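Run: sequence + 3-hydroxy-3-methylglutaryl-coenzyme A -> complex structure.
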Amino acid sequence: MIPDRVTLVEVGPRDGLQNEKQPVDTAVKIDLVHRLQAAGLREIEVTSYVSPKWVPQMADNAQVMAGVYRKAGNRYSVLVPNMLGLQAALAGGDATRPDEVVVFGAASQAFSRRNINCSIEESIERFAPVVAAAREAGLKVRSAISCALGCPYQGEVTPDEVEHLVKLFKQIGVHHCGVADTIGVGTPRKVQAVMERALKHYPVQEVSGHFHDTYGQALANIYACLELGIHTFDTSVAGLGGCPYAKGATGNVATEDVVFMLQGMGIDTGIDLDALVDAGGFISGVLGRPPVSRAGKALLTK
Ligand code: HMG
Ligand code: MG
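>> structure
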């Protein structure tokens, strides 16, 4: 039942950097993407086309996309919150065109309002034409369902609330269902209960987990997903990450830690751990702090 291959979607350039207070140079962001793909990551969330007033760090989205040397067969994705974002993502033609867009909603009303300034229902109304236009343009569309395991404002979130949003995204034509533990409060059995709801509506290859590691549960939660056959996870190099609108949320599970665990289990990721650790060392050096990744830290100081 445990998969023998796992796909990691590297979200460090987007989720990892969006919360950084100091502006990170565009050249550094591009360099990071290059290092990640050199390490073998084939799916990379590069940036987001959100309002620069809301998330100033992502304001150089088009420049970053234009600067990335694309490797054939890789998938480069960007977040889009509305039609303006999709139009901006497509405005530069082939030079900046993503392969995939991510529409992001929340299982809790309170977080939806804080993060994208509208209710869950309004967000679906807003996303429906975005998804249709993205599909028309030949892009893959992924969802991110924030607060699937708990909300910093509402508290408990039920599997029913998560399934409600899974169904709404499915109805508007979203290809892939991303289940996100924004504040890292999920634990393995709860994660399985929520993932089972997603698996009722999407095939296993179109369901993924996105675990912030605030309470140190992310690796256990990934293992719990593996037990269900889920084999796609978002991870962030050096454990960077956080959402500016999720109070107390820390970084995503570190790509290095996940690769270390999977390699130890004999599960193929196609990723060169040494090159990945170097990429983590590079971005941590730029940000002026050690990697949050335990495996990254251990291997860098070995
Ligand atoms: P709003 O203020 O309600 O939007 O924000 P609006 O439509 O009223 O527009 C206000 C202004 O923003 C206008 O400009 C628009 O042109 C501009 P003005 O006339 O004032 O000069 N604008 C835009 N500019 C550039 N790109 C756009 C865009 N849209 C409007 N796409 C909005 C609504 C959704 C835009 C805003 O709330 C927003 O950008 N939110 C994004 C927040 C965000 O990026 N959060 C982090 C990513 S999600 C995340 O991290 C969670 C995830 O990792 C999973 C997990 O862990 O849970 C995915
Ligand atoms: Mg996130």
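>> summary
The pocket of 3-hydroxy-3-methylglutaryl-coenzyme A (ligand 1) is lined by residues 15, 18, 48-51, 53-55, 79, 81-82, 84-85, 88, 104, 115-117, 144, 146, 180, 182, 210, 212, 243, 245 (CB under 6 Å). The chain is about 40% helix and 15% strand.
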